[in-house]
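Lab notebook, design round three. We kept the backbone fixed and only want residue identities now. Task for the bench partner: fill in a sequence for the structure below.
Input structure tokens:
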């Protein structure tokens, strides 16, 4: 090849740059350091300049990369001139801003789903050009062109670290992540552990959750199509054994698994009573298969999370979410929840409006708060914890007016007028701030304590390296384990001696009907009610704290019909009467809470013994579960007096003696072993 041909040879690291960016000698003149205007001031002298020398082109790249990081952008290799071993060899290299060039045109493939991702490229002309010279004998590289003029905003130090060029996972961290994955913990838990190990603030690791998921995905060596076939086979096997197990799925045009949703018999039964308020958490992925995972959960009458269903989706779009919600409603016989809590996702929001038009949609507060460290830690510095405490205070307010005034004061106090996250939170306040949600029932799932409990419950279903085909079984085991643990906690709650604090007949009456969890919530309101004064008005009652001279809540009471309501909407929000309504009932000589205000979902529910007697011999597991419920009820009733306890102890001893006289079948022994393994 001729020398001229060697000089003209150009190689582009990104082919799309060939048509979108031109940095030849005619468009980039030699510049001196004095003529080079920096887009961002820097306090150190490590600034590229014309004539600067480097031993290798890699050294020049590293230098320019460090400079870019300090300034707020990243770089990439653009093109080379010449080629090693041909003519003069490699003679020139160009490094450009990561936003140089224009969006490359992708060729569409009908058989492959396209990811609609927005390109960050905007034609930025910032660059560094180096040329090889042998003037001093040994070859070296000199800077022959430099421009630092950007047509886009540069990132702050706390933001630039999230650019892909600066996100790295060291070999040591890779080994640690793989070790964590084998234990079955979630990616979120891995991140928290590594933050603690490295003593860094949340969100300050040199890599993100997405990077960890990509790493785990690269180590997966199973065939997706085989996994899908195994998963469907597994679901059909479970359906054969348990006709009440329900699942739905869709296949794409190539007959490959696209979406799948399922629910268990116990979950459908729980939903009948506790499906009024539901959390649909879609923020997780089944890491080993890289599929978005959605989990439906609720809260039972003992204040413990209960599982309703699961869904795996190929894509997170309107079509997929609509299908998932339709499948869920099908499992639950068309019964939609009163309220549903989700993450902030526009496609999911639209799907809920379409498929559950009568359901109130709100955002999970714990999913919002989880993002606070990355949003506000660096911005607020030492005042972060002070701001967070103020946010929670505003979140829990009762009155909309108080929230609006408090939010304005908070923004002023912390200087957050231009913060985009604060602006976004305020724009969405109707979906997460409690003052705007108190007229809707959420079963207490918006409180910090209960949200942590639900989040911990969901983590049980996440396994970093599980095989897809085994996931349905693993969830079933986790649900069964949680059901049994819940039974034990229920028994412990029922055995606790309930301490009456007010001596009011309403309190003792409610204690016999409500679960200990629900009664404790009502008791709090009864104690507070004693501190309030009520004034009869023409259209109801005005109730306010005895230390206040103004304000208060309006309570409307119709004694003959047993109807009472308060402007604070506490009952509508939690299913527990508020202190204002209880004060009016007390001053009106009402000695029992009206029946309608002791809702079934908060009562001590016992399964009728006829259901157990009518069970068929085949459904052994269900009969064991019903027996556990009966034993729980027996303990609850027996613990109410010494005489009851004596009778129960005597009769159970006789019953145990009779049972031990009966033969034990081999099937029964296998069932016992299975129960113990799951405990």
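Proposed sequence:
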């Amino acid at each position: 090849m001729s020398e001229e041909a060697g000089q003209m040879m150009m190689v582009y690291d990104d082919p799309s740059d060939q048509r979108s960016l031109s940095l030849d000698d005619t468009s980039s003149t030699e510049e001196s350091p004095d003529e080079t205007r920096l887009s961002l001031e820097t306090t150190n002298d490590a600034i590229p300049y014309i004539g600067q020398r480097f031993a290798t082109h890699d050294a020049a790249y590293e230098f320019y990369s460090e400079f870019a990081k300090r300034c707020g952008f990243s770089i990439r290799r653009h093109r080379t001139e010449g080629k090693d071993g041909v003519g003069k060899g490699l003679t020139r290299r160009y490094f450009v801003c990561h936003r140089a060039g224009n969006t490359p045109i992708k060729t569409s493939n009908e058989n492959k789903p396209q990811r609609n991702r927005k390109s960050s490229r905007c034609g930025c002309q910032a660059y560094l050009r180096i040329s090889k010279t042998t003037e001093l004998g040994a070859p070296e590289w000199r800077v022959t062109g430099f421009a630092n003029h950007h047509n886009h905003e540069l990132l702050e130090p706390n933001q630039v670290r999230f650019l892909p060029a600066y996100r790295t996972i060291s070999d040591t961290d890779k080994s640690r992540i793989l070790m964590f994955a084998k234990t079955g913990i979630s990616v979120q838990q891995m991140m928290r552990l590594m933050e603690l190990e490295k003593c860094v603030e949340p969100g300050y690791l040199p890599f993100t959750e997405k990077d960890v998921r990509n790493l785990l995905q690269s180590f997966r060596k199973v065939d997706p199509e085989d996994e899908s076939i195994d998963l469907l086979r597994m679901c059909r096997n479970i359906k054969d054994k348990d006709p009440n197990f329900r699942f739905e799925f869709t296949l794409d045009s190539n007959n490959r698994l696209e979406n799948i949703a399922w629910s268990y018999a116990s979950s459908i039964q729980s939903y009948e009573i506790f499906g009024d308020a539901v959390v649909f958490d879609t923020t997780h992925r089944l890491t080993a298969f890289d599929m978005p995972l959605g989990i439906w959960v609720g809260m039972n009458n003992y204040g413990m999370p209960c599982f309703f269903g699961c869904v795996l989706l190929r894509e997170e779009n309107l079509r997929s979410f609509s299908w998932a919600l339709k499948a869920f409603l099908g499992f639950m016989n068309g019964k939609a929840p009163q309220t549903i809590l989700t993450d902030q996702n526009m496609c999911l929001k639209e799907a809920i409006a379409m498929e559950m038009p009568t359901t109130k949609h709100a955002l999970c507060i714990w999913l919002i708060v989880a993002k606070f460290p990355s949003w506000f830690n660096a911005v607020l510095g030492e005042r972060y914890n002070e701001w967070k405490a103020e946010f929670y205070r505003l979140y829990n307010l009762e009155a909309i007016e108080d929230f609006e005034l408090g939010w304005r004061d908070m923004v002023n106090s912390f200087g957050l007028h231009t913060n985009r996250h604060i602006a976004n939170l305020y724009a969405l306040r109707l979906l997460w701030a409690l003052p705007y949600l108190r007229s809707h029932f959420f079963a207490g799932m918006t409180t910090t304590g209960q949200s942590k409990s639900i989040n911990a419950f969901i983590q049980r279903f996440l396994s970093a390296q599980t095989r897809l085909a085994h996931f349905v079984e693993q969830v079933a085991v986790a649900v069964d384990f949680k059901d049994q643990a819940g039974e034990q906690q229920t028994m412990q709650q029922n055995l606790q001696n309930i301490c009456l604090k007010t001596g009011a007949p309403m309190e003792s009456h409610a204690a016999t009907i409500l679960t200990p969890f629900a009664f404790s919530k009502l008791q709090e309101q009864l104690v507070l009610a004693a501190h309030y004064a009520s004034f009869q008005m023409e259209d109801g009652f005005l109730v306010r704290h005895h230390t206040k001279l103004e304000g208060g809540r309006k309570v409307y009471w119709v004694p003959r019909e047993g109807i009472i309501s308060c402007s604070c909407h506490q009952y509508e929000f939690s299913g527990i009467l508020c202190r204002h309504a209880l004060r009016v009932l007390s001053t009106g000589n009402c000695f029992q809470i009206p029946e309608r205000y002791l809702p079934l979902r908060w009562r001590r529910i016992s399964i009728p013994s006829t259901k157990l007697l009518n069970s068929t011999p085949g459904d052994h597991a269900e009969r064991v579960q019903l027996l556990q419920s009966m034993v729980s009820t027996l303990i609850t009733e027996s613990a109410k007096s010494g005489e009851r306890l004596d009778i129960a102890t005597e009769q159970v001893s006789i019953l145990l003696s009779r049972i031990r006289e009966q033969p034990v079948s081999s099937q029964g022994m296998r069932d016992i072993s299975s129960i113990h393994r799951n405990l």
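Keep this in mind before ordering anything: The radius of gyration is 33 Å.
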